Amino acid sequence: MRFVFDLDGTLCFDGKTIAPEIKEVLTEASHYGHQIVFASARSYRDCIPVLGEELSQELVIGLNGGLAYDEGNLIFHSHLEEKGYKAVLSWCHRYNLPYFVDDDFHYSGQQIEKMPFASHVDPLHLAKQLPLVELKNPIKIVIEMSRHEDLVEDMASELTLLNVMDVSYFAHEKCLYINPYETNKATTIVDLLGNDFVAFGNDKNDKAMFKASLYSVQVGDYAFLEKYTDEKLPADSSAIAQKLKELYQQF
């Protein structure tokens, strides 16, 4: 069986680390004949310091399904269509909105320090912050909207109507997330692995993954996700490690 894990809020609770007891159980999956997969909104670049040297060699799906790495090598990527990409940048530059753009490893943007995840970007200095014109295959854009929340509805509506990208607003971060059209964690997981997988997640971003899975485990109390959940756990490392051991035997 494949076990697919979101990172932040599911396995990682401080934005930087996974508890040793969880890591130990993750590395035992192969003893039961299982495969471990990670699926995150993060770039692969920013998953590496959280996962560590060994686990980062597993299949890692990043940028909400926009790319996948296996054994440290890029095996899949999608990218934003030029029409949509230019439309997003037009909004950002017109209103001087902070934004962050990822390609398959490097990044660009403006006022990056204002992004809610700025402190977690490339802590190992593996990538380059490129001038925007040098970022050739943009995959994901995050736009920080805290100073312009009045624009969110019109901006999201106009961009969605182009039918060339997926647009989601995360109110708790006050950020718009832009991904390639009909691309998310679930689409990439299913394309690469099929539907026979157990999913662990914690929030809105994991809904499609839960719906596509054979069995789903919610970590934490995000109400929106509960109706797609087979089982619910507290955001506690010991509880997660114990449940993993049980599910390894069950599946």
Quick description:
Keywords: Hydrolase. The protein is of the alpha/beta class and 251 residues long.
Would you mind describing this structure in some detail?
This protein has 251 residues and is α/β, with parallel strands linked by helices. It has 2 domains: 2-77 and 184-250, Rossmann fold, CATH 3.40.50; 82-180, Hypothetical Protein, Haloacid Dehalogenase-like Hydrolase, Chain: A, domain 2 (2-Layer Sandwich), CATH 3.30.1240.10. It has helices at residues 20-27, 44-55, 82-94, 152-160, 185-193, 207-212, 237-250; strands at residues 2-5, 35-39, 59-62, 67-70, 73-77, 99-102, 107-110, 140-144, 165-170, 175-180, 197-201, 215-219, 231-233. Helix 1 runs parallel beside helix 7.
Please name the defining characteristics of this protein:
single chain; 251 residues; alpha/beta; Rossmann fold; Hypothetical Protein, Haloacid Dehalogenase-like Hydrolase, Chain: A, domain 2; 2 domains; eight-stranded mixed beta sheet; five-stranded antiparallel beta sheet; 28% helix
